[in-house]
Design a protein that fits this description.
It contains 15 helices and 10 strands. By secondary structure, it is of the alpha/beta class. It folds into 3 domains: about 20-105, Helix Hairpins; about 115-240, 3-Layer(aba) Sandwich (Rossmann fold), CATH 3.40.50; about 275-350, Regulator of K+ conductance, C-terminal domain (Alpha-Beta Plaits), CATH 3.30.70.1450. It has a 6-stranded parallel sheet, sandwiched between helices. Strands 7-10-8-9 form a 4-stranded antiparallel sheet, with helices on one face. Residues about 1-20 have low confidence and may be disordered.
Length: about 350
């Protein structure tokens, strides 16, 4: 039963509707149909009095719109009565249709469609961007930190009400749906972050994303310890429990507040020209085969190498000057923007 309820909820996630928008569209459709019905009825009525098709349509239009060009032919008593009825019905219908059209444009529903198409075009042009699935508290925090790092981000969420607060690119739909992930540009994305509330949802998104893009880097949120190994098995490169991270940070602030605050400043203060970054060493880099001393990394660039991570994922912290730099290795360095940029150029042979 729980499984069925979960599947039913998932399938309904992409059916989130916007009542106001649907209501206006329905009213617009009904009013246009009413207007067409009045024009057809008026045309047929005048044809019954012996008018031609064009004359009947012309007489109906000028009567309904109250333009006042004058009758095509002098009216008989019967035609006058018919015109009175047509005016009473037609003018009211035309006024209602016009008011709905104005409301549609004023509320931006049609304009929203144009903006949506423009946004879709911009998303299709993105490359190496980040997809964030889930626009809750965690998703919003992730988004703002990514934007502070000048990353291109696309948000995916099933709630139009939540997405109304996004100040960037977004896709409305269920992140477990392959079609929605393709609309978000998963084939061109560099990273996918799934920050949904339920472990089952994050597991499904991770499994779907990994099956679609074997090389994409996936970061998944976990709400329980039991979900961590399952998310790794589903294909997540990293699994994060926000509660654990929040607890660890609070403990660090209690025990070593200056260290914790310094790391916050270095990692997240965009106004500070001093940063902690990772740099991957390419196979073509002149640094390959050199030691930190022989490469004179610090002397040439001014950066300080805090750690080195090999292709197997093992860290060498506080590496000695004799540590050899290998291809594919990741250097964890600290320095200002120019220093980090200089080392990156050396590491990637730019």
């Amino acid at each position: 039963m729980n499984r069925l309820r979960w599947i039913g909820k998932r399938r309904g996630g992409n059916g989130d509707v916007q009542p106001d928008r649907l209501n206006v569209r329905r009213r617009l459709t009904v009013s246009l149909l009413m207007m067409v019905a009045v024009l057809v009825a008026g045309t047929l009525g005048y044809m019954a009095f012996g008018y031609g098709v064009i004359d009947s349509l012309f007489e109906t239009v000028i009567t309904v719109t109250t333009v006042g060009y004058g009758e095509v032919h002098p009216f008989t008593a019967g035609e006058q009565v018919f015109s009175i009825v047509l005016i009473l019905l037609g003018v009211g219908t035309a006024a209602y249709t016009f008011s709905v059209l104005i409301e549609t444009f004023m509320e931006g529903y049609l304009g929203g469609g144009f903006r949506r198409r423009k946004m879709d075009q911009q998303i299709r042009a993105m490359d190496q961007h980040v997809i964030v699935c889930g626009w809750g508290r965690v998703g919003r925090a992730i988004y703002h930190n990514l934007k502070a790092s000048h990353e291109d981000v696309v948000v995916v969420d099933a709630s139009s009400q939540r997405l109304a607060t996004v100040d960037g690119y977004y896709i409305h739909g269920d992140a477990t749906d392959e079609r929605i992930l393709r609309e978000a540009g998963i084939e061109r994305a560099r990273v996918l972050i799934t920050a949904l509330n339920a472990d089952a949802d994050n597991l499904y998104v991770t499994l779907t994303a990994r099956s679609m893009c074997p090389d994409i880097f996936i970061v998944s949120r976990a709400a329980s310890e039991q979900a961590v190994p399952k998310l790794h098995q589903a294909g997540a490169n990293r699994v994060v429990n926000p509660q654990d991270l929040g607890g660890a940070r609070m403990a660090a602030l209690a025990v070593q507040p200056h260290v914790a605050e310094f790391l916050d400043v270095v990692m997240h203060d965009g106004g500070l020209d001093f940063r902690l970054e990772q740099i991957e060493v390419s196979e073509e880099s002149p640094l390959v085969g050199e030691t930190l001393r022989s490469a004179m990394v610090h002397d040439q660039t001014g950066t300080l190498v805090l750690a080195m991570r090999d292709t197997g994922g093992a860290f060498r912290t506080n590496p000695p000057p004799t540590a050899e730099i290998r291809a594919g290795e990741v250097l964890i360095v600290i320095g200002d923007a120019d220093q980090v940029s200089s080392l990156r150029m050396l590491a990637q042979d730019v």
